Amino acid sequence: MDEIMIIGIAGGTGSGKTTITETLVQRFGGNVSVVHHDNYYKAHHDMPYEERCLLNYDHPDAFDTDRMVSDLKKLKAGKPIECPVYDYTIHDRSDRTELVEPTRVIIVEGILIYADPRLCEQIDIKIFVDTDADVRILRRILRDVEERGRSLESVINQYLTTVKPMHEQFVEPSKRRADVIIPEGGQNQVALEMVVQRVRAHLEITRH
């Protein structure tokens, strides 16, 4: 098995993580797999929908980090994983899983992946996408209302009660663990091209 490189892409909600992730997938196709931190939200099947809506999804404890660390170790060892799938519309883990193959580059994407040292240990290159808070909240509103079926009021309420305070308590401090900080996310073409070149170099080395 060729050497596998794991790249972390972290940053606040709406910072542009997805743009960078999608760019790498488009450039390198089958050489890249993506693991989303959001899919590792803990399951709450026993809890009514109304209570699930009130949970704090922006705290490190909301995630099944043990399973994610275990899955990343399997991928690094060249073994496929059955990744859980989270359903935003019901605020709960779905019954489905998704097969993720151990490709030569694995992207781990999420807001809190650097908040836990155990996850950091599994990530070879840690990128943090740094974007102004006002831009991030506007992007989050558009995404949650258009793609996730949320009301404007619920998005704003969630942002003020958990997203913003948790960003300041956990996401922002985790930036110190990053190897590379990219201002303005996917709009930063210079930084994006540098990441692309680093991935290309890894693929060329492992190909020979």
Describe the model:
This protein has helices at 17-28, 49-53, 65-76, 117-122, 133-146, 152-174, 189-207; strands at 5-11, 32-36, 81-87, 92-100, 105-109, 125-130, 180-183. A 5-stranded parallel sheet has the order 2-5-1-6-7, covered by helices on one side. Strands 3-4 form a two-stranded antiparallel sheet. Helices cover 44% and strands 21% of the residues. A hairpin with a 4-residue loop joins strand 3 and strand 4 (92-100). The model has no long low-confidence stretch (mean pLDDT 91). It starts with a strand and ends with a helix. It is an alpha/beta fold and 208 residues long. The protein has one domain (5-203): P-loop containing nucleotide triphosphate hydrolases (Rossmann fold), CATH 3.40.50.300.
Shape: globular
CATH classification, class level: Alpha Beta
> How large is the count of helical segments?
7
Number of domains: 1
> Main beta sheet, described?
5 strands, parallel
CATH architecture verdict: 3-Layer(aba) Sandwich
Distance between the termini: 12 Å
Counting DSSP E segments of at least 2 residues, the number of strands comes to 7
Provide the fold topology.
Elements lengths: L4 E7 L5 H12 L3 E5 L12 H5 L11 H12 L4 E7 L4 E9 L4 E5 L7 H6 L2 E6 L2 H14 L5 H23 L5 E4 L5 H19 L1
Parallel strand pairs: 1-5, 1-6, 2-5, 6-7
Antiparallel strand pairs: 3-4
Helix pairs in contact: 1-7, 5-6
In short:
With 208 residues, the protein is an alpha/beta fold.
Q: Which descriptors would you attach to this protein?
A:
single chain, Rossmann fold, 21% strand, alpha/beta, two-stranded antiparallel ribbon, 208 residues, 7 strands, globular, five-stranded parallel β-sheet
